[in-house]
C-alpha cells in the first residue's frame, strides 16, 4: 500500500492570522489556514497554509534533509506494515502538489516521517511510529 507521498522540507512556523468582517484579527482553527497564510518560519505550518513560494522552499529543504534521489522508495518489506512505503518525488512534482486549506499535516510531521521511513520504514509505519499520525490524517490533504 502506498502512503500518499508528499515531499516537503523544513523552514519552521508561526500560526497565521486572519481577519473577520469587523477587521478584528483572530487565529484560524488548526488546519483551516488559507494557502499563503503562514508567516515566519514554516515548520509548524499546515501544508494547506503554505504559499507556492513556501512550498518550493520546503521541497528544496526536504530533498536536502533526506538526502535521497527522486524515485527513492522507503518500504517496509516484512511484518504487519509490509508493503507500506513513501516515495521521494522530484522537485517539480513536489511543488505541483495542491493541498486544500483543511490539510492539517505540518511540515515538521512530514519531515519526521520521511526521515524515519528512510531509517526504518517498518518502525515508521507501526503504531506510534513517526508516520502514523500523518497517515491517519492524509485523507484531509487530497
Automatic annotation (TrEMBL):
Chain segments carrying region Disordered: 19-38
Record-given protein name: Lipoprotein
Species per Swiss-Prot/TrEMBL record: Pendulispora rubella
Amino acid at each position: 500500500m502506498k502512503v500518499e507521498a508528499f515531499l516537503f522540507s523544513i523552514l519552521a512556523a508561526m500560526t497565521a492570522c486572519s481577519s473577520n468582517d469587523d477587521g478584528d484579527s483572530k487565529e484560524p482553527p488548526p488546519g483551516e489556514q488559507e494557502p499563503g497564510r503562514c508567516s515566519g518560519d514554516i515548520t509548524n505550518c499546515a501544508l494547506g497554509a503554505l504559499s507556492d513560494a513556501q512550498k518550493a522552499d520546503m521541497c528544496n529543504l526536504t530533498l536536502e534533509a533526506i538526502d535521497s534521489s527522486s524515485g527513492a522508495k522507503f518500504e517496509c518489506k516484512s511484518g504487519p506494515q509490509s508493503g507500506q512505503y513513501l516515495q521521494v518525488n522530484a522537485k517539480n512534482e513536489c511543488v505541483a502538489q495542491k493541498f486544500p486549506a483543511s490539510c492539517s499535516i505540518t511540515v515538521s510531521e512530514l519531515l519526521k516521517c520521511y526521515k524515519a521511513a528512510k531509517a526504518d520504514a517498518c518502525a515508521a509505519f507501526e503504531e506510534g511510529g513517526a508516520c502514523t499520525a500523518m497517515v491517519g490524517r492524509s485523507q484531509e490533504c487530497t
